[in-house]
Amino acid sequence: MGGTKLMKDKYLKLKEWFDSYTNDFTMKNEKDQQNINLKINHSKRVTKDMEEIIKNFEMNEDEKYLAKIIALYHDIGRFKQYKEYQTFSDYKSEDHGSLGVQVIKENKLLADFSPDVQNIICRAIEQHNKAEIDKNYFDHEKEIFFAKLIRDADKLDIFNIFVKRYKKESQEDFIIKLSTEDRVTDEVYKKILNKEAINYDKLETLNDLKMMQLTWIYDINFAETIEIIKEREYLETIYNSIGGNEKAEQVYEEIKKYMTTV
């Protein structure tokens, strides 16, 4: 992969390109610009969360920079998506993981990397937003390792974003508008009990969304990430925002048991 200074230089060069590219997405409408800024800031926070997850991992410095590149670029497709479709909804537009790989390849951003490293980056980005990782998509375990890392780092900041909103008790800045009635849809509840993946288009109520987010813990890949989630009290905050709901209580108790075994 090259010496550490070389990898650091590549990371800094890609960071510079990211800033330049995203700064070009200036929107006339203030709300649209806020949404663009949301994704810029999210990408930077995910990079910091990635650093937090891997700080004690047995990885060399080159591998740590590689993880940070994937974190910074995991949502690079979001900007093109929003400019073309005015939505962050993949099922109403295009898959933003695939769009991100397209942006990377069109701009030849990874030309300085070996084919192996290019595959690690592109496949991690391609798979970061899927309901489940498709292990058949990868050539070897190292690709899967980095794909799992970005999924964890991404979820940490998504937890962070939603927890802040739930503390405000407002749907004002939600991209997805859902019913605020106090119920959990039967279909969503059944999937949760069966530990099945749930797509956003199946959600009807805000409680559906919160319940789905509680179960993200089952898709967390590293014990280090779970410890961060515990420290930041993300699941506790989400559960407390649901209110007295028997289905939620049952699911939360299962989750607490699960976290003691990981």
Describe the structure.
The chain is mostly helical and 262 residues long. It folds into 2 domains: 4-151, no CATH class; 176-261, no CATH class. The protein has 12 helices and no strands. Helix 1 packs parallel to helix 3, helix 5 (96-106) runs antiparallel to helix 6 (115-127) and helix 9 packs antiparallel against helix 11. The longest helix is centred in the middle third of the chain and has 28 residues, at 141-168. The radius of gyration is 19 Å and the shape is globular. The chain starts with a helix and ends with a helix. The mean pLDDT is 92.
Q: What percent of residues adopt helix (DSSP H or I)? A: 55-70%
What share of residues are in beta strands? under 5%
What distance lies between the first and last C-alpha atoms, to the nearest angstrom?
33 Å
Number of helices: 12
The coarse silhouette is globular
Low-pLDDT runs of 5+ residues are none
Mean pLDDT: 92
Radius of gyration (Å): 19 Å
Main sheet properties: none
Q: What is the string of SSEs from the N terminus onward?
A: HHHHHHHHHHHH
What is the multimeric organization of the chains shown?
single chain
Structure class: mainly alpha
Total DSSP E strands? 0
State the domain count: 2
Q: Could you provide a short overview of the structure?
A:
The protein has twelve helices and no strands.
Set down the secondary structure blueprint.
Elements: H1 4-23, H2 30-54, H3 61-73, H4 77-85, H5 96-106, H6 115-127, H7 141-168, H8 186-193, H9 206-214, H10 223-232, H11 234-242, H12 246-261
